[in-house]
Amino acid sequence: MKTLIESIKINTISFESGDTNVYVNAILSKEKLSYPSDLIISYTDLNVIINKLQQQNPDEDISTFFDEEKMYDGSTYYKLNSSKYSNTNFQVNYLEFTNKVKQIRA
Fold it and tell me: What is the pTM (predicted TM-score) of this model?
């Protein structure tokens, strides 16, 4: 079966400490088609993405680009904006996600 996406261009990554979900806003591409999408991934998948971004940006420490904001309940909200570093586009076939990527369209 062919993959649903070939490449991802990360716009933002955000999550809250204590939450089990990580939210990724990205542009997904396959062949000549591209479309904006929001993904919900696990922390394990976040580590896969951060490792890939770090490999593509070896002169920069990606973890320093996360902005932190204290929340009212004492947790911390983290947000990574891709405008702070250079290479945010990568091929999906090199990545192993813990959950299969699904596409839902109407």
Answer: 0.80
User: In 3D, which of 62, 46, 52, 37 has the Cα closest to residue 14?
Assistant: 46
Task: Using the structure block, give the residue that is written with the tokens 């806003």.
Answer: 25
- Give dist(CA 56, CA 33) in Å, integer: 23
Total domains in the fold of the chain = 1
What are the tokens at 30?
Answer: 């396959």
Q: pLDDT below 70 — which residues of the chain?
A: 1-4, 84-87, 92-106
Is residue 78 situated within a structural domain?
A: yes
In this structure, what token pair is assigned to residue 50?
Answer: 């951060």
Assess if residue 61 is contained within a domain: yes
